[in-house]
Backbone:
């Protein structure tokens, strides 16, 4: 039954891709590829649920690819990620069906092709049982990301984003290829499970290469540059698919690597912990100062990648120290954050697509109150933002609580390096949590809670889109309410890495959670849904009684909009102004620059802008100090090579002779 479900899923994804290639411009069929993607996601989800309940299965496909035996494996870990990935993919596909009703003709072909290819490649990565199948599916995913990011290409920035996306994907694939070749060369087998036989220096080098390859897809520093550009270049629900669905294969790859290779080298654990913490801080810092809503949500993906990898680093530290409970709590915290990110990020991008389709812009200054006229998208956006800000009672609050509890176990580790790395990562994550609240309060306050724009009307209702948005938003709450049940499912899915009994230690009682070690704080997400409303009612009642009935009286006064009362128009408080303190406080991190420009135009002076205008900008430190010098060096080498290409034939023969003599000299010296 599982094999048939997987076969039907691949068939549905293939059919959807072919329909878009052949008939994508047909108005009546523009929703057909997404409907096919929905059907395929349902079959893949069914396969994951069946394998999670009844156990894993392995299937041999003979010599399908001609390199060793091709196999697919659906064990508990694969089943867990199939369930997570394709449940979210089903909701995104449902929204995409509604989205096609407002598509412009120029955007119909190509996006659906990439959409279906992403789902097929994601399925291939998760169920791959041999090296070649894994690498083949990974390269298809890289190509599909390029298609999604480059399908529109209406201006130069989108073309550059597509190339940056595919370049990062090729770096990721290259790292995976080198790591897999090291392992296959040592074992003599292409099966993933043969990796368990490798040890020594090859084991450590391959471990590091695989971590780099999978983490690059997540957007870990220094590979985060493609995330805000690639996501923004994609069209509509393709952003939700890339951010909330497909990047989870990077998480799966990290989990599978540890399940097969076991104990990592200490230096790799230190790098993973510190890099994860720095990535989280950089991601949320840049999210907090963006003026584009799409870039805010995209940069928050970088932050969540950092949180997931930091919790993964805790699990690796447990492997090094042979502390199985720490391994359990690290993987549990990281997986909970993965679930929260998948659901919330998909909901945010679905809502952002709705806002952009209604207004034609994603500029925060022009989106005031747009959530009021699109209630389904507004609610989904608010709940997704609360989740990623780590606010109760959402699943994001539960996952970040587990991460912070796990990071406080550094005193259990041997060696100063691991302890300092865990402590440093904990400080970075704590700072990130505070900045996340600031970043998402800004966007929710302006987009959802802001005053409705003049002339704005309630948008036409698209049933499928509203259902998908509400389902993703509600999942941020109901999953938190049943977190103890979720942990039982995760314990079963993580069984190939850590014993379920160790993961289930997190359940102090049927509805109360605790970390893997006693003596720390406890939490009951389920009781929060009872306690919080009761507290609200108690506080409201007390305030009403103490105010003697004056609590609900409306007192109308002129609003305070700036440092000077009565200021209106373009000088009122804006989304840019809200984030300005953050630009100055974190100026060294954000690379904040402020330039003054003289305004000679009479019209500028009449509008009250004054004789001088200040322009503030930020720049990523990785891009400024790593990629820009690297780009200059590559261009310099290319210019030198261009000069060589236009030389004389005698010079080329002389170059070859000199190279041959040098090679012979090296060989002679070696002998």
Residues:
């Amino acid at each position: 039954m599982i094999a048939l479900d997987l076969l039907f899923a691949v068939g549905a994804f293939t059919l959807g891709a072919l329909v878009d290639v052949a008939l994508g411009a047909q108005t009546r069929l523009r929703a057909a590829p997404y409907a096919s993607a929905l059907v395929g996601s349902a079959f893949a989800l069914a396969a994951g649920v069946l394998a999670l309940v009844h156990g894993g299965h392995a299937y041999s496909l003979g010599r399908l690819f001609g390199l060793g035996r091709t196999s697919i494996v659906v064990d508990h870990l694969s089943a867990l990620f199939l369930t997570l990935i394709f449940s979210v993919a089903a909701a995104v596909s449902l929204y995409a069906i509604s989205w096609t009703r407002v598509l412009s003709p120029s955007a119909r072909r190509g996006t659906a092709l990439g959409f279906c290819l992403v789902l097929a490649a994601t399925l291939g990565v998760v169920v791959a049982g041999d090296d070649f199948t894994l690498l083949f599916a990974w390269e298809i995913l890289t190509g599909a990301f390029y298609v999604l990011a480059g399908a529109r290409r209406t201006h130069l920035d989108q073309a550059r984003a597509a190339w940056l996306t595919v370049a990062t994907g090729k770096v990721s694939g290259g790292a995976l290829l080198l790591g897999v070749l090291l392992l296959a060369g040592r074992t003599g087998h292409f099966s993933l499970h043969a990796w368990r036989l490798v040890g020594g220096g090859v084991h450590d080098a391959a471990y590091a290469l695989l971590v780099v390859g999978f983490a690059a897809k997540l957007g870990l520093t220094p590979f985060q540059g493609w995330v805000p550009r690639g996501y923004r270049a994609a069209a509509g629900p393709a952003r939700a698919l890339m951010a909330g669905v497909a990047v989870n294969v990077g998480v799966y790859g990290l989990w599978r690597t540890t399940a097969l290779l076991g104990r990592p080298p200490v230096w790799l654990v230190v790098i993973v912990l510190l890099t994860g913490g720095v990535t989280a801080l950089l991601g949320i810092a840049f999210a907090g100062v963006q003026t584009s809503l799409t870039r805010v949500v995209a940069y928050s993906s970088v932050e969540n990648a950092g949180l997931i990898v930091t919790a993964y680093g805790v699990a690796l530290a447990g492997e090094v120290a042979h502390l199985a409970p720490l391994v359990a709590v690290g993987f549990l915290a990281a997986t909970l954050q993965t679930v929260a990110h998948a659901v919330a990020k998909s909901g945010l991008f679905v809502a952002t697509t709705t806002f952009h389709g209604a207004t034609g812009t994603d500029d925060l200054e022009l989106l005031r109150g747009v959530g009021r006229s699109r209630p389904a998208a507004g609610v989904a956006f608010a709940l997704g933002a609360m989740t990623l800000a780590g606010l109760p009672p959402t699943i994001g609050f539960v996952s970040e609580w587990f991460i912070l509890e796990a990071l406080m176990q550094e005193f259990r580790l041997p060696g100063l390096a691991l302890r300092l790395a865990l402590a440093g990562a904990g400080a970075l994550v704590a700072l990130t949590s505070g900045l996340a609240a600031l970043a998402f309060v800004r966007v929710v306050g302006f987009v959802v809670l802001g005053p409705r724009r003049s002339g704005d009307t309630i948008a036409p209702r698209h049933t499928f889109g509203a259902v998908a948005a509400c389902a993703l938003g509600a999942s941020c709450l109901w999953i938190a309410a049943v977190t103890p049940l979720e942990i039982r499912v995760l314990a079963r899915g993580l069984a190939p890495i850590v014993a379920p009994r160790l993961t289930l230690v997190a359940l102090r009682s049927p509805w109360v959670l605790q970390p893997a070690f006693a003596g720390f704080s406890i939490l009951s997400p389920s009781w929060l849904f009872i306690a919080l409303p009761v507290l609200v009612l108690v506080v409201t009642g007390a305030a009403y009684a103490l105010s003697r009935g004056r609590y609900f009286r409306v007192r109308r006064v002129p609003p305070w909009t700036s440092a000077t009362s009565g200021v209106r128009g373009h000088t009122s408080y804006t989304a840019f102004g809200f984030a300005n303190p953050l630009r100055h406080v974190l100026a060294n991190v954000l690379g904040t620059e402020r330039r003054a420009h003289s305004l000679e135009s009479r019209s500028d002076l009449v509008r009250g802008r004054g004789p001088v205008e200040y322009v503030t900008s930020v720049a990523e430190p990785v891009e400024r100090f790593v990629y820009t010098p690297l780009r200059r060096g590559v261009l310099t080498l290319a210019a030198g090579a261009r000069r060589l290409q236009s030389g004389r034939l005698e010079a080329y023969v002389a170059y070859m002779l000199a190279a041959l003599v040098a090679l012979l000299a090296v060989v002679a010296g070696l002998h």
User: Anything to note?
Assistant: Residues 263-340+351-526 form one domain. Confidence is low (pLDDT under 50) at residues 561-567, 604-608. The first strand starts at residue 57 and ends at 60.
